[in-house]
Amino acid sequence: SGHPGAPMGCAPMAYALWGHVMRFSPKDPSWLNRDRFILSNGHACALQYSMLHLTGYDLSLDDLKDFRKLHSKCPGHPENFMTAGVEVCTGPLGQGLSNAVGLALARAHMAARYNKPDFPLFDNCVYAICGDGCLMEGIN
Fold it and tell me: Are 67 and 2 in contact (CB under 8 A)?
């Protein structure tokens, strides 16, 4: 179900990010200074759900098997109110990339306002994967 090409093609990038670069806490998905991962091309959400499962978020193999089923933790596009670890809802193409820019601007504002020398409260990063369809949308 879904679009298998994007999740398989993006898997090496996701592995590098989630396995070696990003800072996050599956035990505390709302940790304020966590790095943010935005999957703008939400139709490739099998990738995000797989990474959440593999990194210890509350997403079981049975949840993954319920992909795109009614009331599933794995809907057909990422929904932040349904799945722990999903930062934003990314339905229409381009929406996620726009959200990523907004999250990065918010982080920069918080850092400028609250960080002190040798005491960075906000030093998280925002990572986004988007497809060519996202870049063609007017919202970007």
Answer: yes
- Residue holding tokens 């988007």? 130
pLDDT of residue 104: 98
Q: Distance between CA atoms of 75 and 71, rounded to whole angstroms? A: 8
AA identity, residue 32: L
Residue 59, CB-side half-sphere exposure with 13 Å CA sphere: 27
Tell me how far apart the alpha carbons of residues 118 and 81 are, in angstroms, rounded to a whole number: 35
d(CA 84, CA 8): 22
The pTM (predicted TM-score) of the whole model is 0.92
pLDDT for 107:
97
Q: What are phi and psi of 10, to 5 degrees?
A: -90, -5
